[in-house]
Structure formats: C-alpha cells, structure tokens
Input
Amino acid sequence: MEYTQLGRTGLKVSRLVLGTMNFGPQTDEADSHAIMDAALDAGINFFDTANAYGWGNNKGRTEEIIGSWFAKGEGRRDKTVLATKVYANMAGDGETPWPNHDKLSALNIRRSVEASLRRLGTDHIDLYQFHHVDRGTPWDEIWQAMDVLVQQGKVLYAGSSNHAGWHIAQANETAARRGSLGLVSEQCLYNLAERRAEMEVVPAAEAYGLGVIPWSPLHGGLLGGALRKAQEGGGARTTSGRAATALEDPAVRARIESYENLVAKHGLEPGEVALAWLLSRPGVTGPIVGPRTAGQLTSALRAVELELSEELLTALDEIFPGPGPSPEAFAW
Output
C-alpha cells in the first residue's frame, strides 16, 4: 500500500480509503468485520463513515459495526485513521427531526460528536467532516464548536464534504482569523464521468492545502464495467440507480461503450482503471472504495499498483473530457 499526507497535515493515510456505507444495509456485521480486517491487512489505514449510515430506522448502525470491530482489540483502533461525518438528522423514517438535531449548530455538533463516540466505542475521532453545507450557521460558530472539541481531544482534524470552492475559501479564511487549522480535506463527487470538481473545488482544495477524497469513484457502478456485466447477466447493480439512469442517455451509453472497449484493448479492468485514474490526479489523497464483498476490495487494491500510460490517459481524456483549467473553462 502507498501512503500520502492528508492535505497540508502531517497525518499519513493510505491512497485508498475504505468506505463503510454498505456496512449494515447491504453487508452484515460479520462480513463487515472481515472486510475491515482484510483492508487493514492490506495496509489500508483510512476508514470513512458517517453518523447517518445505516439509513432509515437504522441510522448509526454502521458506526456501531465499526465500534464492535474496534472492540476486538489487537490494535485495530490504534492502526485506523477514523473519519466520520456530521450534518444529517438522525430521525427514523416518518419521524420529524427535533429542532437542533441536525446541521452544524454548535449544539448539534457537540451532541453528534458524543453520540458518534459512543457508537464507535472510541474516545476521539481523527477526521470530523461536515457532510454538507449549512447555509444557516456562520463559520465562526462552527469553528468555535470545533476548537472546543480539539482542545478536549475528542476531534483531531476537520474536513468538509460536498462543499463548493467558495465554501472552502470562506471556511478556511474564517479559521485563519481565529488561529484555527481549518479544513484539511474535502470529500466530493469526482470521477472520470463527473469532472466538474476540477472547475473550482479541486483548485480551491489545492490552494488551501486540503486533501481531495473522491466519493463514488465508479459513478455508481457506471465505470465498473456496467455494459459488460449487463451482457454477462451479472450486472444487478447496473439495472437500477445512477448507472441505469445514466445509460438511458444514448450519448452516455456510447461513451461507456468506448471506455470499456479502450480498457479491454489494454487488457485492463474498467473499475481498476477508474480508480487508478483518480490516483493520478493532482491533489487527490485517495478515492473512497465501498466494497460489499471481500472480492470487491481485492479488485480495488490492484488499482494502487496500476500505472496508466500516457497513451491511455490521453485516450481517457478524449472519451471523458474535463472542463479545462479554471477560470478559463467558464470565463471565456
């Protein structure tokens, strides 16, 4: 496994991030534990979750599964860089969230940290991420709450998720005025098929020293060999969700067909190429891989050692052109 520093920090993290969103809803506790053990054995030390994972009436279940894995001991917690998130309300389906039980008020941040620490069975969170922008809470209040948690040792670093470039700038300028470290990472939707983050989010992250952590690196399975799997009868995931919706567009379908043909010509697997492409991008710390099975984790691990040729990178840009340099891409 390769490691890099998270943004401008001294924290060393693996180039692949283990996403845990499937733990609970799609992968039971025993299999989730097995996947985490396999990830740690492979050198993945960066685990990502969120307080709301588990979804519906089971929000928080994913953190509980990670907590029961930590409880097995043998250095599991000590070896793991643990990232979780705050923002979503924790009300079950059909329940109305109580006021101040969501978003990023100082009150909810404090409440949410304590609840996550209980579920995770740990005394601190390494990277606490704001899951979404809170348009109603000023950054001064957010940083006041985070400064207290850092001083208490309950949180070490703060990160953002799904924030625009100007949000990153606003957050870190406010933090700088307070003498706080500010955001050290941004978790955003970024992959070959969705490159809008290159317009402002990635440049802002680079300018402020944030590590970029792409989520959905296979774009909901679209870049994981969706057409080939459908033809082989093994593409259950491609028949619903983002991939199926995207493939209804003839232009998207043509691009994916070109992509799969190109990758096949080079004797490579589509999903591994999509991950390796992200690993080659400037500013990217590591993509989040969310395996439902141990086999999917094994495939993702191969991407770390895969070096894409200039010929292949050029061809990928032709199929999935990015927006171009900022601000030229949108200024003229």
Notes: The chain has a mean pLDDT of 95.
